[in-house]
Amino acid sequence: MIKFENVSVAIGSKTIIKGIGFEARPSEITVIVGPNGSGKTTLMKAMSGESAYDGSVSINGHEVSAARSRDQALMRAVLPQATTLSFPFTVREIVNLGILSGRSGVSRINDLVERALAAVDLHGFAGRFYQELSGGEQQRVQLARVLCQVWEPVLDGIPRYLFLDEPVSSLDIKHQLAIMETARDYVRRGGGVIAILHDLNLAAMYADRIIVLARGRMVAVGTPDQVIRDDVIAAAFECHLSVGKTPQGNAPFILPQSFSP
Amino acid sequence: MAISTISVDERLQASDTTEGDRTRRAKLAIVLLALLLAATMLLNLGSGASDASGLVVLRDLLGGADTFTLRDRVIIYDIRLPRLLLGVLVGAALAVSGAVMQGLFRNPLADPGLVGVSAGASLGAVSMIVLGQTLLTPLNDALGSLALPMMAFVGGLITTFILYQIATRHGRTSVATMLLAGIALAALAMAVTGILIFIADDRQLRDLTFWQLGSLAGATWSKIYAVAPIIISALAVSPFIARGLNALALGEPTAHHMGVPVQRLKYAAILSVSAAVGAAVAVSGGIGFVGIVVAHMLRLAIGPDNRYLLPASALLGASLLLLADAVSRTIVAPAELPIGIVTALAGAPFFLWILLRKRGVLDL
């Protein structure tokens, strides 16, 4: 379980997030939504051990700020919004970097790179140069690398997590769904997923729990049905939206109405 | 996953698990480079003022043919052999340091010369040459022939330390700050070096010029004993940082996500580079471009994986420096062209060629 308790992050004198508290459970997709600048990425950086924070952030009971990089890497893998690459690696070499070397907790599956590439629909891309791929393909290569790092969702009875910061932002609709299905499959097998999404419909469809951030604070948390409501969304995003039900009736969907709330 | 009618297992069976995998090629390259180094070593042993060929020397080394005159023996064992070993050590040190710096700065054009390490080492050496008989006499008396290498080494370390202090805040090292601070520190070190040159007398000026141009000519066994432990232990660090440097190619945050202790990695890389470069500059002066040329050629051939790039760099760097030394000794024989001129004549156009090729791709 990932647990935030009264977490604040300040950069210089500016407070980015304040008083954040929630739990993200294994076997669940937890989605964080919120307008630009609401602190979503800062929140993810705090739980990835990238930025200092006040309060407490723990993964499976281990305080993030006190855990070594290596131990954090065994418990969770992180897909950042954007990744730059400075040398001409092939796709296989990049994905292979995700496989941790050495001690316990390391996957020993032989064709792990092939499996990970297949999971992001990039079968047959192993020999290509990363820098020659399109933005969406690069994003999926990075996801394959991230999947390799925590391939088994549960290791020695302890759940592991995927942290995904806008995993589908540069993908076409087919691959948006493919990636979200991969995430769903991961939680079905006992792991946990925490994802930042901009697409509220995708969030409503795939999230078990949604956390809404606005101006650095948590303004709502709950199941899609509890959170994706006209009033909550309009207040957080400061625009007018109308919420309906999908024809199948299993998830709310959002239709933009007007700019002014 | 329901995105294709073919199952994952079926597709895996049809897949080629070596596509995009360059490890076999890299391992082969390392074997070939080891052979190349052996060949250049033999060539260097056998070339010069004595007629003794490399193979004869080798046979003598192994305790075989005893056909050498005393003159040959002196030439081989007191001049050629230390020079050969110094060339191997310096070439490997400069090439590996270049590759490590490039990995650290995530920039294929980074080089110890760029961040002021070489300039700091030069300042240390030049102050010994100019002030050795006046201000620094006690040091000169105490250390003897080791005084110059020690001062260069200390100069390199001090520069690196200041650089690291400037570029590191809150436990994080900013590469951009480090590059810029390196340029400023190099300029400062060169200005102070300029003052020393200004006050130097004629004899010192000749020493200075020769040393600044870079040369393996002063190789002695005592120099080898002084720098070999430093360079070898610095090179021994590289296998431990290779994987971390690979991860660093994806950026520092991502390297951290992948479990790399980034700050420790940077510390190890900086320390080993400054030790290796300080030692190399101390005994051979300003030999430039080895790091850039070697690592770049190897990346084209075997890819950027540091687990293979670093050992391959050591082998190719040593070979290339020996070849450059052979050129420097023979091109204007019986005089000798400083090796730094040879490497700069070959390396600077190569550097420009990389720049032109990467124009628009590199953010410089």
UniProtKB/TrEMBL annotation, chain A:
Q: Which Pfam families match?
A: ABC_tran
Write one Gene Ontology MF term: ATP binding
Query: Which CDD domains does this UniProt record tie to the protein?
Result: ABC_Iron-Siderophores_B12_Hemin (cd03214)
Kindly list the residue ranges recorded as spanning the membrane.
none
Transport among keywords: yes
Spell out the Gene3D superfamilies in the cross-references. Answer: P-loop containing nucleotide triphosphate hydrolases
Keywords for this protein: ATP-binding, Nucleotide-binding, Translocase, Transport
**Xref: PROSITE patterns:** ABC_TRANSPORTER_1, ABC_TRANSPORTER_2
Looking at the record, the residues that make up the ABC transporter domain are 2-240
Q: What does this protein do?
A: Part of the ABC transporter complex HmuTUV involved in hemin import. Responsible for energy coupling to the transport system.
Q: Which family does it belong to?
A: Belongs to the ABC transporter superfamily.
Q: What is this protein called?
A: Heme ABC transporter ATP-binding protein
Species name for this entry?
A: Mesorhizobium denitrificans
Q: What is the lineage of its organism?
A: Bacteria, Pseudomonadati, Pseudomonadota, Alphaproteobacteria, Hyphomicrobiales
